[in-house]
Design a protein that fits this description.
Elements: E1 17-25, E2 32-40, E3 44-53, H1 59-67, E4 77-81, E5 85-86, E6 89-90, H2 93-100, E7 104-109, E8 121-127, E9 130-137, H3 141-151, H4 160-175
Parallel strand pairs: 1-4, 4-7
Antiparallel strand pairs: 1-2, 2-3, 5-6, 7-9, 8-9
Helix pairs in contact: 1-2
Length: 176
Amino acid sequence: MKEIISPPIRQVKREVRTLGIAIRKRILGEGFNIVGVVFRGNSLLDGVMKSITKGTDLIPDVVNMILSSPHYEQVRIIILEHPISYEAESLDPLRLAQSVKKPVLILSFNINPPLLWEGATHFQIKKEETILNITSLGLKPRTAERVIKMASRLDEALPECLRVANLILDSLACCE
């Protein structure tokens, strides 16, 4: 597997910048709404980005959204929620990681996603009653676990960047 990130993450700080990406099929019209939320740790919202795609491959639009963001240089990790396949459309996390040169974490609850990507590692975190399955591309399990811990509130299993991205996406669906 070719190198995903540069420079490598050596230490996970309390205010690590994570980008949570949520994707949903549009209610009206064709395509998908894509929302990205940048958080510093679990408490500071740094930025929001949005894109709409109509194609069959979500990668070009997601990559363009990330690379054109003023937050691109500060973002250390991208977090997606499983499933990452949306009807006929799909988001290949390995292509995403290689395109933006950032590690990608795929989170799922009570679903054990297959390791379909070269170089991916899979592990679980138990938070109170919730089992969080994580597939990591570009991060070692210990580092990825620390990122999830720093990016999540104590009472939530889902990192704040992903939770807020889903909230914004839900509100966009109401306004369509």
